TrEMBL record:
Protein name in the entry: Acyl-CoA carboxylase subunit epsilon
Stored InterPro entries: ACC_epsilon (IPR032716)
Region (Disordered): 31-65
């Protein structure tokens, strides 16, 4: 299956190369993680909090908390 095109590798080098290639071929493919959703696409961001009443309400409206 393998063909040496240039050079003269010894038996140990060929064995190491064969082991690496066999390991890569038999390795399970990595699981794809689901794409993380952007916070901008979160539907909860469209829900507005109720407005506060009373003293300092204008200040609280500018600072979400």
């Amino acid at each position: 299956m393998l063909k040496v095109v240039k050079g003269t590798p010894d038996d140990y080098q060929l064995a190491a190369l064969t082991a690496v290639i066999a390991g890569l071929a038999s390795a399970a493919p990595a699981e794809d993680k689901p794409a993380r959703r952007s916070e901008w696409a979160n539907p909860a961001r469209r829900v507005r909090r109720p407005l506060q009443h009373g003293p300092g309400a204008w200040r609280a409206s500018g600072f979400p908390g």
